[in-house]
Design a protein that fits this description.
The complex is a heterodimer of chains A (about 260) and B (about 650).
Chain A (H helix, E strand, L loop, with lengths): L9 E12 L2 E12 L3 E5 L6 H8 L7 E6 L2 E3 L4 H6 L2 E4 L11 H7 L9 H6 L3 H19 L15 H14 L4 E5 L7 H17 L3 E5 L3 H7 L2 E6 L2 E6 L1 H6 L1 H8 L5
Parallel strand pairs in A: 3-8, 3-9, 6-7, 7-8
Antiparallel strand pairs in A: 1-2, 1-4, 4-5, 9-10
Helix pairs in contact in A: 3-6
Chain B lengths: L7 H11 L4 E7 L2 E6 H17 L7 E5 L4 H12 L3 E5 L5 H11 L3 E4 L2 H11 L7 E4 L13 E3 H14 L3 H8 L5 E6 L9 E5 H15 L6 E3 L7 H14 L2 E4 L6 H8 L3 E3 L2 H17 L2 H22 L6 H22 L6 E4 L6 H9 L4 E5 L9 E2 L12 E2 L4 E4 L4 E5 L6 E2 L3 H7 L6 E9 L5 E6 L4 E2 L5 E2 L1 H9 L4 E7 L6 E7 L1 H10 L7 H6 L1 H19 L9 E6 L19 H7 L1 H7 L5 E9 L5 E12 L17
Parallel strand pairs in B: 1-11, 3-4, 3-5, 5-6, 6-7, 10-11, 12-13, 13-14, 25-26
Antiparallel strand pairs in B: 1-2, 8-9, 9-19, 14-15, 15-16, 17-18, 18-20, 20-21, 22-23, 24-25, 26-28, 27-28
Helix pairs in contact in B: 1-2, 1-3, 2-3, 2-6, 4-5, 8-9, 12-13, 12-14, 20-21
The chains are: A alpha/beta (about 260), B alpha/beta (about 650).
Amino acid sequence: MQNGKTLGEPLLEAREISLSFGGVKALRGVSLAIRRHEILAIIGPNGAGKTSMLNVVNGFYHPQQGTITFKGETRRAMRPHQAAAQGIARTFQNVALFKGMTTLDNIMTGRLLRMKRGLLWQALYWGPAEREELAHREAVEKIIDFLEIQAIRKIPVGRLPYGLQKRVELGRALAMEPELLLLDEPMAGMNVEEKEDMCRFILDVNDEFGTTIALIEHDMGVVMDISDRVAVLDYGRKIADGPPDAVRADQAVIDAYLGVSHG
Amino acid sequence: MSVALDTFPKLLLDHARRRGGRPANREKDYGIWQSWSWAAVAREVGDLACGLAAMGFRRGDKLAIIGDNRPRLYWAMTAAQALGGVPVPIYQDAVAEETAFVLAHAEARFAIAEDQEQVDKLLAAKDRVPSLEAIVYSDPRGLRHYRQPFLFSYAAVQEKGRELAAAKPGFLEAEIAKGKGADTAIIVYTSGTTGQPKGVVLSFDNVIVTARNAAEREGLSETDEVLAYLPMAWVGDHIFSFAQSYCVGFCVSCPESAATVMLDLRELGPTYFFAPPRIYENILTQVMIRMEDAGWLKRRLFHAFMNVARRVGARLLDGQKVGLLDRACYALGQLLVYGPLRNALGFSRIRLAYTAGEAIGPDIFTFYRSLGINVKQLYGMTECSVFLCIQPDGEVRPDTVGTPATGVEIKIDESGEVLYRGPGVFQGYFKNPEATAAAKRADGWVHSGDAGFFAEGGHLKIIDRAKDVGRLADGTLFAPKYIENKLKFFPYIKEAVAFGNGRDSVAAILNIDLAAVGNWAERRGIAYASYQELAANEAVGELLRGCVEQVNRDLAAEPALAGSQIRRFLVLHKELDADDGELTRTRKVRRGFIAERYRVLVEALYSTAPSVRIETEVRFEDGRKGQIRAELAIREAACLPLAREAPPLRKAS
C-alpha cells in the first residue's frame, strides 16, 4: 500500500467458522486470514456478523464449527484472557473503560497482564515491585505521548468527550503491546476531525509498531483510505475479500449494500 | 559585567563556566520534567552549531525556526548566532502562505522545524522559496517515510557537528569570538496589522542592553523561573524566555504541549510570568465558573474574602497603610482562600508578572493584585526590543503603562503620537528602507504609532493607535479601541469592533465569549447547538445590550468622549479568526479588513434595517474553504445625554 510495505504470512487463520445462537445463524462457514502487518477492514450491513467474527477471534464466543490458527497454533476455542496473553487486544463498539479512573490508570490496566509481582508485593510497593511499576509507567507514558493525550492524563475518563474516550480505549489496547489489534467501530459517532485523528493514529500504530490490525468500520471513506484489504460479510457469509478497489467494484458487495432480493 | 559578553553565544559560554550545574532549560518528557544545565545546553548548542557549519551554514545566513516552544528550538537560535547567522522565528500557527512569505523575504537558507506538521508546511512552501536548501526536524514521528535529500534529523545534524568539532578543535570558539554587539541578533517579523509582515532587525546590543536594564530594574536573578509558552516568533517571548534568561542565568521551562500549559504552570510555579490580558481574563473566567459550581460554603468563603481582598489587597501590595483589623482579615483570607487559589493557578511563587499588548480590564487587573500577585503593565513593541515603559513597584495603576524604562526617552508630538528613543531601538526593517524611514526619524526618534499622553506622576497613558483616532461627522473625538476595550472588559464579549470615523454615530460588531455566554445560557436553561445559534439567541442579544448600555454610561461620564456612545450594534455569527485574516496572530482586530469584509453589516448598522443577511467564507486550518450564512439582528442601545455624572444603574449581568 502507500508505504510499499510487504505483507507477511497469515498471523491468524479462521477456517470454516460457523456460529449460531439458538436458531439464528450468525456466521456460516466463514474463512478469513489476517496477515502480519496488514490493516484488514471487515465491512458489511448491520447484522452481517462482523462483531461476532471479532468475538470469535478473541475467544469471546466459541464457534460450533471451524478452527482458528493463531501464530501457528490451532485451536477450537480459547478464553478471552488466553487470547490476551497471546497478544490479541481489542476495543469495543461501546466504549468499555473504567469511567471513574483517570486516563493514566485506565491505560495502566492494559499493562496488568505483563505485571509479574503479586498483590502483596505491589501493595508494599518496594524493591522489585517499585521498579516494575516504574517500567510499566514509562511504557504507558510513551503511549500517552504517542496518542497526544498528555493534557488529559489525570482526568477521570467519564468526564472526557466521546472521541477522547475512544482514543483512551485504543491506548489501553496498545498498552498490552499486542501483535493483533481488533478494533470494533473505532470511529463510530465521531466528527470529521476526530475521525481524521483516529485514522492517523491507526496508520501510525501499524507503521511504527508493526501491529497487525483488524477493524470493523462503517465509514467507507475511512475503510478505502486506510485498509490494505477488505473482507465483506453479509448474512453470516463472506461475500468478498481483496484490495479496497477490487471490493468496491464487486457486484455481490454492491448488491449487499444496495439491496437485491435474496432468493 | 565584562565588556566582552556582548552576544548570546558568549553569554552562554560564560554561564556554562560560572553556573554550569544550574538548570537552564526544562521540558516534560513522558510525563517527567527533564532538565538541562547551562553546561549541557552549551554542549547541545555547540553540537548543533558545528553540524550546521558542516552542512554549509555561513556567516550572515538566516535560519528559520518554526514550532512550539521547545528547548531544541531555543538552542537553534544560539547555534545560528554562534556561527554569525541570524535566527528568524516564524509563528507556528501561521498558514502555509504566510510561512512562505517570511521564508522568501528573509532569504532563509536553512530551517528548523519542530515536527511533521511544520515540515509539511515548509515542504509546501519550498517551491516558492528558492533560497531554502535544508530542513532540519526535531521530532522524527511520522517522518520515517520522507525521502527528501534535503531533510535532516536534529540528532543527525548534531552527530555531524561532533565529527566536525573533533576534526577541527577550537573551530566553534573562534566563530563565537568573531561575533560582536553591533551584529544582527535576530529578525522578528511583526504580525502585520496592515499588509505584509515586516522584518524587524535587532542587534545584540539592542536586545541584550534592553533585557539587562529591565532585569536589573526588577531585580531578576538566576533563581527565577519562567514558563515559555507564548509564540517563539513574538518578540516578547524572545526577551522574557530567551534574552533575559541569557542575561541573568535563570531557568526557562517549556510546556509539554499547548494543551497542558495551565497544568504545567501549576507544577512549575514560575516566579516571573508574562501574559497578554486575554490570558489573565481566561484564567479569571475559569475561576469564576468553577466557583459558581462549588459548594455553598466554599462559595460564601470565596466571595466574603474576595471582598476583603478587593478593599485592601492591592494597597497591601503597594506598601500602603492598612488598619490592623483589615490586616488580620487579609491574613486569614490568605490562609483560607488566596493562598490555595494562587496555588491552584500556579501563581504561588510569582514575584513579578507583566501584562502588555492591550489594555487590561481594571476589574481583572485588580483581582490579581488583590490576591497578592504583583501584576504590572508594561508598554513596548518589537521595534524597541519590548521595554519602553514599566510600572514601578508601588505605583501600579490600571489605566496607565508606567514610567519610561532605563535609558528610554519618550515625548509626545503635536498630533498626540508617542515618540521614543533608547538603546533598544531597532536597526531597520529588513529590505524595506521606505518603511524604516517612515518610522525612524533622522534625529533618532521613532514613531510608535500610538496616541497617548502623560498623566500625573510621569505615567504614560495610551488611548489608541494614532492612525485610528478619528472624528465623528460632527467633530466629536472617536477612539475606537478605547470603546472596544471597554466592551471587551465584560466577560461575555470576546471581541468588539467599533465604527464611527466620519459617520454621525458609533456602531459596533460584537463577538460573544463562548465559555462565558455558554455557561450563562446553561444556567438559564437556554438550549443551543452551536456558536452561531448561541450568538443569534434573543436573550443573549439582550444580555449584550445591557453591556453596551453600561459602556455608554461610562462614556457619558467622560466629557471628551461622551459623544461617541454606541447607537446600534449586532452580534456576529462567527468568531473573528486569524486564519480568516480578521485578527492578527497576536489576536488584535484588523478593523479596516473587517470593515471591508463585512461591508454589508456596517452599511446595515447605519441604516434603519432591523436585521441583515450575510454569507461569509471561512478558511479552515488546512486551507480548505467553506461558506456560512446567517440572518443577524441589529439592536439599538440607549444613549445618554451629555451629563456630568451618569445616573447609577444596576450592572448588566
